[in-house]
Specification:
By secondary structure, this protein is of the alpha/beta class. It contains nine helices and seven strands, in the order αααβαβαββαβαααββ.
Length: 232
């Protein structure tokens, strides 16, 4: 399904979010900044076409290596082309990987991020456990995910847009044979958010878990710390 929509993925992300998705990624990189290069690289899991990976490359001025991992080969092909066009091919590399069985050593990364992809992992708990495993002690895990606005009026408008208009626009532009843009709202509406997702992160072994809603709760950033002293 994701391979089929790779050709229109960036266009639809920006169009259907009214371009706010760029601001969400920028804010994520600001609120969860990378540490110095000696703390290790950054992993952006479920990277898609690499937008969050490129955001971290830009804000660190290329000083911290970034790895983008995804299970969709077509998404990664487009991400690699974007990296080459931006002159970031040496700094940002992409790996085809299963989020539930990552091909990385324990504690390999100072920061592991995941933007709008956690709900697409078959077993959310296993995906979180893998994210924690590959994070160094003292490092952080950051999840940016859609959520459901708590304001009743905004919630009704959001549901109408998400259930009806977004799928129509998405299907028309992407031409997805597997109704990808009907899957999107369905997956968001049934996925745990706010305290429920924060609790899952704690169960995966993270501490100091907090979350911050963006744009009245349309998206939410969740952050947790892996216990232990750095280098432990």
């Amino acid at each position: 399904m994701f391979d089929q929509i790779a050709h229109s993925y960036d266009l639809l992300n920006h169009l259907l979010s009214l371009n706010i998705d760029r601001a969400w990624r920028n804010k994520t990189a600001k609120l969860v900044p990378a540490g110095p290069p000696e703390q290790g690289p950054i992993l952006d899991l479920c990277t898609g076409t690499g937008d969050l990976a490129f955001t971290y490359d830009r804000v660190t001025k290329g000083a911290v290596p970034v790895v983008g991992a995804d299970f969709s080969r077509e998404m990664l092909t487009r991400a690699a082309k974007k990296a080459a066009a931006a002159g970031a091919g040496e700094r940002v590399r992409f790996v085809e990987a299963d989020a539930q069985a990552l091909p990385f050593a324990d504690g390999a990364f100072q920061l592991v991020t995941n933007a709008f992809g956690l709900r697409n992992i078959t077993d959310t708990d296993k995906g979180l456990a893998e994210m924690v495993r590959v994070t160094r002690p003292g490092g952080r895990v950051a999840v940016l995910e859609f959520s459901k606005p708590r304001n009743p009026l905004l919630g009704r408008l959001y549901n109408a847009y998400f259930r009806y208009l977004l799928p129509l626009l998405g299907q028309f532009i992407s031409g997805s044979r597997e109704n990808a843009y009907r899957y999107l709202p369905a997956s968001v509406l049934k996925f745990p958010d706010y305290d429920a997702l924060a609790e899952k992160m704690r169960a995966a072994g993270l501490t100091e878990v907090r979350y911050e809603p963006f744009t009245f709760g349309v998206a939410t950033l969740y952050v947790g710390v892996k216990p232990g002293a750095p280098g432990a």
